[in-house]
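ping. complex inputs:
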Amino acid sequence: MEILAVEGLTFTYPKCGSPAVRDVSLTLEKGEFAVLCGATGSGKSTLLRMLKRELTPLGERTGRILFRGKELSELADRDSAAKIGFVMQQPEQQIVTDKVWHELAFGLENLGVPQGEIARRTAEMASYFGIGEWYDRDVSELSGGQKQLLNLAAVLVMQPDILILDEPTAQLDPIAASDFIAALKRLNRDMSLTMIMAEHRLEEVVPICDRLMIMEGGTLAANGAPADVITRLRGREELLRGMPAASRLYAELEKGGSCPLTVREGRRYIEENYRFETRELPAEEYTVPVEAALSLKDVWFRYERGSRDIIKGLELAVGAGEIFCILGGNGSGKTTTLNAAAGLLKPYKGDIRVFGKKLRDYKNRSLYRECLALLPQDVQTTFLHNSVREELSECGADVKSLPYDVSRLMDKHPYDLSGGEQQLVALAKVLASKPKLLLLDEPTKGLDANAKADMTAILRRLKADGVTTVIVTHDVEFAAEAADRCAMFFGGQIVSVGTPREFFSCSSFYTTAVSRMTRGFYEGAVTVAQAAELCRLNGKREAAR
Amino acid sequence: MRSFSEFDPVAVTVWFFAVVGVAMFCGHPLLMAVSLAGAVLFFAVRNGRKHGRSHLFFVLLFAVLALANPLVSHNGATVLFVLNDRPVTLEALLYGVNSAAMIVGVLYWFRSFTQIMTSEKILCVAGTVSPKLALVLSMALRAVPMFARRAKQVSDAQKAMGLYSEDNIIDDLRGRMRVFSIISTWALENGIITADSMTARGYGTGRRTQLRRFRFTAADGVFTAITLALLGVVAAAIATDSLTFTFYPRIDVGVTGTLGVCGSIAYGALVLLPVFIETEVSLRWKYLQSKV
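pong. complex structure:
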């Protein structure tokens, strides 16, 4: 049964020359899970907001949107609010009330549902999502992932027929994002809930969706089964980047069979199509620079006297000019380590040196002048002004000497920029003090695949200028692409260090999709490019077999 | 089996305002003494030896309040002694003691009240009056700490970039101003998203209901009825001038008729009502435990 139909939809924002959404037509069947992807600014959000009457932006609209065969504007207020659920990107800002239970009840209270019914439905929803344990808590005590799960539950409690999600995992770390996506998958499977979701974390979503739609410049460039859509994207590097590793490998190589989406399908694809004579690419020698940019020796830290140790006897040495990634789970102490290295937190024992000099020997903030700079996880906190221009001139940043171009952003408000652009501007602010050691906390959070690739390129350019970078991240794929060396942080210490190739090929879970896909066939392949090269070197298997 | 603090918030609030209302609007020393003693007893029963030191502060406050009146007010017929050519009178001293008892008593009631009435219960009471009021309160309760946290994050981020030093007062102030101004922008920006999230979930589509997580049981009903009945007796006594007491120019106890005596006993019972409940509950609990 057709639940939603869009016919020839065109939308233009006021005072804009060209339409943000151009002649889009699509239909959604009951129980379908559709994923909408595309670059930042391609009109994904605008399209999704058009589907929810309450959030439709002002502007000029032509075309029709039908919900269950009825024009969207003809729905009753309460039906429109309840039957079309919408989850936004920001976990924190979407929450209205101060308690978890109240947030769950909020939508039903608005609809005037009787008390007993509200109590029953919220209880039901809380047990389905395992929210029961934190039902009585303040929302401020929840983690980002829990907040977003609460937002999802608070919409579902109204029993919508269709769920619209606008990049719901963009602000979450990869583990929380996987949990969120798993929850969606379960809903789709158990409840046959119709969903349309804009997303750029495609590795996990594409294999479970029924339909993949790609937006480009406001039009629907592709719309169909995921494997077919990806096959047609061959050669379109900027669109392929976010796709699952297996499908990217397939797109790099020659055609043959259907497009693999998951690691399992990718393994079968390699096994059936390629030979395994050359097992390994020639190893690139990597020697750790002798001079240490940052060294921590036997560092111990806890926040309060009575609390537990967060950092326990940490030993770490980062060579000058390296790009060093620290990976690890939530709450393992990664960010704490970064803050300690930046001198914001003081360990109770141990020795931290920056370029061979103890932290406390940097007097009068000389540490932060042309030496070390820290970019926090939430880059919005670095902005204080109403335009990028003021922002950069305040800290004396020289726009021309930056390794990238921000001139097109100069007159915008920092809050109006996309996640990737915000990251670039914040980085420009931090680079103004000409640091030799740059500390980055989760620089890829909320970035789409292209912005991530840009970030990698920028880090490379900074490295060429002699800047040492220490990155704390959850993002395994990014670390594999960008890092010279990676380290695994667990239980307050570094448990293993190595070049991405050594590091990822010896771990079996905490590793890239490519590494999991090529394990046993080839050794040391971590990125798609490496795997593709190995496949090409070996050549195709005889078709006769 | 519920202790007093687990009674329905509306019942608790009604009781609380009855006790405090009488304490604030009737200046009779007997009632003040009952109120003060009851308030301290109730707080002690609930908290045991915790907050031990804070009592000292209230003793001091009591002394200061009691002694301030005779030094300022010189009414009264019985002169105790003369200080700086001004008479210090017995009546003024007693009046001071009486008002100190009133103020300290009310403060103690409020201490217990804020302990019992968590934000959630206050919201529940507000929601009984108007669901919209409850929503506004709930949003405010969330927003204020959220902005405080954000301000801390922003100023930390600036520090780590080495932008503002605190060595220089003017620079420091300017930095704080900027942080404040960007937080305001951030709040507005947030507000838009929150407003979207509210309309998306049907806010403003008609009459709201409210999920009430406390159940007004028969025990709450009985408790509220007793509270109101006792309050009625006290109010009748006060309204018929059966409980009068004059300090100036000379202490005059007035005529305390039968109604006055009943009123005093009723107030005593009203004040001790929760202490009865707490004791009864703890005794019953001990008995039940002995059977385990």
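Chain B has a mean pLDDT of 88.
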